[in-house]
Specification:
Blueprint lengths: L5 H70 L3 H28 L3 H71 L1
């Protein structure tokens, strides 16, 4: 290299610079493609997964609220509100199932697939528990109706008994007056 001319040294330097720039450009291009792939994965998989997970969480909270409302409406003997709560619960359960199915199709990691399957199993358990709650709510409504009917019947019986007692007392007084007179 000592016996190279200036033009050869400049040519080699410019050539080395062009080579470094080409390698640098190739690395930058590969990085931008990789970033594009990561961004695509984030937008098409991660964000929808997070959205579905949050929507599922909110829907499950709504389920709990509706179940409480069902119990309260049953206790208050509000049949219309009770039926409305049952329909709302059925709709929420269907919505949660839809969210979980979409989430399962987006998930890649086996651990997350297992978690989604566990939530689906818990939702099946929820259905069994919800059926029992509806049965108990209906039984409570009938019990309260029977108590109300029993109270009404008791009031009628009490009224009849009082009328009979008054009548007997009147008959007894009449006999006493005849016996004296």
């Amino acid at each position: 290299m000592n016996n190279w001319s200036i033009s050869k040294k400049l040519g080699a330097g410019v050539g080395a610079l062009v080579l470094v720039l080409m390698v640098s450009g190739l690395v930058a291009f590969q990085q931008s493609r990789s970033m594009h792939g990561q961004l695509d994965t984030t937008l098409n998989r991660t964000v929808p997964q997070i959205d579905l997970a949050l929507r599922t969480k909110d829907a499950i909270s709504e389920l709990r609220s509706e179940q409480r409302l069902l119990l309260l409406s049953s206790y208050a003997q509000d049949r219309a509100k009770q039926q409305e709560s049952v329909r709302a619960i059925d709709g929420q359960v269907a919505e949660v199932r839809g969210f979980l199915d979409k989430l399962a199709s987006l998930v890649v990691m086996p651990e997350v697939r297992t978690l989604v399957a566990e939530v689906k199993t818990a939702l099946d358990d929820w259905d069994v528990a919800q059926t029992e709650v509806e049965r108990l709510a209906e039984a409570e409504r009938f019990r309260l109706e029977n108590v109300a009917e029993g109270q009404a019947s008791s009031a009628k019986l009490t009224g009849f008994a009082e009328a009979e007692i008054v009548q007997k007392q009147g008959e007894g007084k009449a006999k006493a007056v005849k016996a004296q007179g």
